[in-house]
Amino acid sequence: MSAGAISPQHATSAATLLEIRSVAKSFGATQVLKNISLRIATGEFLTLLGESGSGKTTLLRLIAGFEQPTSGEIWMSNERLDTLPPYKRRVNTVFQIYALFPHLNVRENVAYGLRVKSTPKAEIASRVEEALRMVKMISFAAARPSTLSGGQQQRIALARALINRPQLLLLDEPLSALDANLRKQMQSELKALQREIGIAFLFVTHDQDEAMALSDRIALLRNGALEQIASPRDIYSRPATAYTAEFIGQTNLLRGEINDGVVRCGALQWKTSEVTGAALFSLRPEAIRLAGAGEDAAGVARFRGIIRQQLYSGASELLEIDCGGNQILRARIPATGPLTGAHEFVFSPAEAVRVTESPTPRGSRPADHEPR
Amino acid sequence: MTSANSHQRSPLLTAYAVLVFAFIYLPIAVLILYSFNRDGVGGFPPRHFTLDWYRQLFSDAAIWDSVVNSLLVAAASVALSLTLGLLAALALDRANFPGKTLFRRLVLLPLILPGIITGLSLLMFAVFAGMHLSLLTVFLGHGTALISVATTELFAGLQKLDRAQEEASLDLGATPWQTFWRVTLPNLKLSLVAAGLLIFTLSMDEIAVSFFLIGRDNTLPLEIWGRLRRGITPEINAISTLIFAASVALIVIWYRLRARTIGTEAQELLERL
Amino acid sequence: MYSRAYKAAISIPPLLWVCFFLLLPYALMFAHSFWLVRDGSLVHQWNLQNYRALFTNPLYFQVFLRTAGIAASVTLCSLLLGYPLAYYLSFHAGPRKELLYQLVVVPLWVSYLVRGYAWKTILGSDGVLNGFLQYLHITHEPVSFFLYSPFAVVLMLTHIYTPFVFLPIYAALEHIPRPLLEASQDLGANRRATFLRVILPLSVPGLLAGATFAFVLSLGDFLAPLLVGGPSATMIANIVQSLFGAAYDWPLGAAISVCILLITASLLFTTERLEKRWSFR
């Protein structure tokens, strides 16, 4: 299993393992996936992130072989994949509900893939032992799945999949059934495991914190289409669309007018190199800070507002700032103690990232800060 | 199993399934067909469609006497089985007493034992108690054997009952007896009707137990049985067809009612009993 | 929540009834098996003659063997028909599953006599089957072994019990979580391997339940031989029936019945244990 750990590279520099070419999927009249194209590199940890209904699980199932694409092709290692049945693909899946065989014990569950291929007994025994050690479940070899906790079952499901040495491991929201603490622990174990064995992981989740923590790259899906695909840092600091900016982390969406290199949005204005016209910007709450006493205005944008609400959360607090004219901004600052009244705030113009409009804004978060 | 979606195509298996369905239904279809055949029960193909056998059937007094007898026994069996079955279901659901497991097994035993055992043991009981064999003994046989059916159905219905309703009733001041009449029973209405339908149908068709408990008055199945000894005529096909049609109607209603009351998962659990 | 009076009220009537009309009759049957018939009337003299007769007279053993053979054949045939049918409905039938299920279940409850009689009319020398074969010139004279043979009994009882066998198997198959099948395929097992390694083992409890039902009820059947079996297919229950009829010997009949009861009970017990072992939740 520890066959030459490859340190994961960015998609651009490593070889392409899996290629999804213009794949679309419809169930009856409902189109669940619309023309998706993306590549997964060898040894990469790629996360499919999205809300329920975004199509991420469907895409996973297409790669696993439980569904057929309505159009488009999937290629792996330069061979056509989507025409193969699941049992012929060098892909294995860790299911959301683990799907351990209740009539087999742990050892038999893990050995299943090898026994099906008529692997010699001695080899099975040694590989099973190796797999169980890897997931730290060796003492449970004779147990039945029903006696194991959720976290333990998940490790067995992992071992069962990895023992087959797939080229790609698919994980369908494997941590969603675990409680918060266990989840954090498993996240770090998974990450370490992936680095150690060097197999490409395709991870599906709706939890953006999880995606950010684990992935080499995140593919954000919305309504069956690929919204943005980038590394966690890039997707956070340079979101391409309003949806991305809001889905990952919190943000203030600022709708403004650019005139002669200056953006004006309500009480805010700052210099920009963008061309004249209407524009939408994303400004993260942590980019805004309290103006220091006597701080110079050169190079920073400055504005004034009244603190309406202060939500304390230990290391930081979230301020709700009323800038007048129905413009409310959110700022995250290090915990400073109770604040009231009017204050001056600053932010660096570089932090205001221009984003494109998304056709259907998400949910009930304050999306627009257009002054009336 | 899935490679594409959850439904596979397998022409061989489909053909086999069709054959099995044919095996289940063809004999009955043949039976019905020949009830309209002028030339008798056998031979092929049937020619000369006629309703004469049905006409003969309708003027056959002995058959209709036996139908009345069967109806009486069935009605009484429904009453007895439902009452005792309801109590047994309640007891199994709510009470704990020594020997409860034995009780449960005993109640359900007639379902799985061959009818001859139930019939003969009750025959010996009847003789022991000095009873003459008659419709009464038949009724005792059916009633006792079918308690098991009632208990099973009503127990499943009780599982679906919202216990909180009864607790609310008691909380509001009703006595357990009042709660039973005003809350428990109305909630079990559908289960009771479903169980009653099934018991009625099974009692009307019952032959193995009745065989040993019958006196001078025949039930319908035993009347037909007696006729078979004398030689078969399409009149028997005719009455069989009518029995089949009536049974199917009742069973379909029963099935629909049951699906409404206990849902399909509990239904399957019942079948596994 | 339930007072003692309430619990007594719901437990005592059925308990009493069951004692009187189930326990007591079985006890009576048990007692009868130790009594005798002398000069045409019952003598309450405790002895083991009946049982000795059962175990020494080869006739009874032969008939029992034949009965067991018929019951085993019926069980096997019902499984061969019922299992694939249940499999088809569970995995291949798609949206029509519910309707097809009803189609299988409904005949189950329709009169035993009606269905047995149907076979009688089909299998006879001038029955429908022979007529059909002659019409197609496949045969030129009536084939006599269709009716009044063990074959006919097995055929009729298979027809009766296939739906019985189908039900618990279908329930067991429906309970198999579909992700298990996907997992199996994901790990490299094709459809056949998935069936043998996952579906079949998980369907064993249902299979056992259905098989036991069919076997036990066939074992104690006496009507089928009378309808379609003829003398060559006399089963053990027919002997009992005649001992309670024309061949008046209630104690002997009771003894055989007790044996049937014991065999049935031990079979049920064994199957229940096996089912528990094979039940994985």
Structural Rg of chain B:
23 Å
Q: Which second-level CATH architecture of chain B applies?
A: Orthogonal Bundle
Instruction: Classify the beta-strand content of chain B into a percent band.
Output: under 5%
Judging by the overall fold, what is the CATH architecture of chain C? Orthogonal Bundle
* Secondary-structure-derived class of chain B: mainly alpha
Are there runs of chain B of 5+ residues with pLDDT below 50, and where? 1-7
CATH topology of chain C: MetI-like fold
- Radius of gyration based on Cα positions of chain C: 23 Å
Order of helices and strands of chain B: HHHHHHHHHHHH
Instruction: Give, in spatial order, the strands making up the sheet with the most strands of chain C.
Output: 1-2
Q: What is the CATH topology classification name of chain B?
A: MetI-like fold
H/E element sequence of chain C: HEEHHHHHHHHHHH
Residues in helix, % of chain C: over 70%
Shape of chain C: globular
Topology:
The complex is a heterotrimer of chains A (372), B (273) and C (281).
Chain A: E1 16-27, E2 30-41, E3 45-49, H1 56-64, E4 71-76, E5 79-80, E6 91-94, H2 106-116, H3 121-134, H4 150-162, E7 168-172, H5 180-197, E8 200-205, H6 208-214, E9 217-222, E10 225-230, H7 232-237, H8 242-247, E11 252-259, E12 262-265, E13 268-271, E14 277-283, E15 289-290, E16 301-313, E17 316-322, E18 328-334, E19 341-347, E20 353-355
Parallel strand pairs in A: 3-8, 3-9, 6-7, 7-8
Antiparallel strand pairs in A: 1-2, 1-4, 4-5, 9-10, 11-12, 11-14, 12-13, 14-20, 15-19, 16-17, 16-19, 17-18
Chain B: H1 11-34, H2 52-58, H3 61-94, H4 100-112, H5 115-128, H6 135-159, H7 163-171, H8 176-187, H9 189-205, H10 210-213, H11 220-230, H12 234-271
Helix pairs in contact in B: 1-12, 2-12, 3-6, 3-9, 3-11, 4-6, 5-6, 6-9, 6-12, 7-8, 9-12
Chain C: H1 4-32, E1 36-38, E2 41-43, H2 49-56, H3 58-91, H4 97-108, H5 112-123, H6 128-135, H7 150-175, H8 178-186, H9 191-219, H10 223-229, H11 236-243, H12 250-277
Antiparallel strand pairs in C: 1-2
